[in-house]
Amino acid sequence: SAVISQKPSRDICQRGTSLTIQCQVDSQVTMMFWYRQQPGQSLTLIATANQGSEATYESGFVIDKFPISRPNLTFSTLTVSNMSPEDSSIYLCSVSGGQTDEQFFGPGTRLTVL
Amino acid sequence: GQQVMQIPQYQHVQEGEDFTTYCNSSTTLSNIQWYKQRPGGHPVFLIQLVKSGEVKKQKRLTFQFGEAKKNSSLHITATQTTDVGTYFCAGGGGTASKLTFGTGTRLQVTL
Q1: Mean pLDDT in chain B?
Q2: Domain A4-113 sits in CATH 3.40.1190.20
């Protein structure tokens, strides 16, 4: 299994600003995923980030709002740009297992936008 | 797009009672995975089912994948307070490794 850390664990931000969330994995992985989970709700996939290529975004999510970087096989960042209160949520990164499709999740970043 | 629904949305049981959550996909799945999320925690992988009609057991938990590979269930026998949390099914069916999470079932267990 992979061990994943995220920074920051939580933040309170003003509307109109941007926040970059970091995701670090203790082993090299091909695919990393970014999810959003609003309180009491399910997980919604934002995008899939593969090293060396552009992230693939899900319907309803765009690169201008959620730019993603994937500079190497152990690290990724998600930026939430020009934030509004509707962006208040928990943001989770995950990686898929080596020979299986199971996903390992980071602890999440709790974002509150005022 | 693919939708994965779970029922019930919430269930409250007394310790020792059984619990079942059902998962239904709008499309055929290549596999189904189950995750547990404790309050304040992140989702933790429980199991993956791949074959039509597959049944797997983990101690008090029994997982089943439907014959048509569009539905699944998780049954917990004799619940314990440690079973508290939200159980999500997640369907794999499109791009490799990409999952669509179900709506989740929150389980509350009291003594």
Answers
A1: 95
A2: no
CA distance B54 to A6: 35
Q: Residue ranges of the domains in chain A? A: 4-113
Determine the average pLDDT of the residues in B24-30. 94
| Rounded Cα distance, B74 and B55, in Å | 10
Cα→Cα distances A20→A4, A80, B13, B45, B111, Å: 16, 6, 41, 26, 43
The number of folded domains in chain B is 1
Is A96 touching B (CB cutoff 8 A)? yes
Q: Which of A40, A101, A105 sits opposite B43 (nearest CB)?
A: A105
pLDDT averaged over every residue in chain A: 94
CB spacing of A103 vs B92 below 8 angstroms:
no
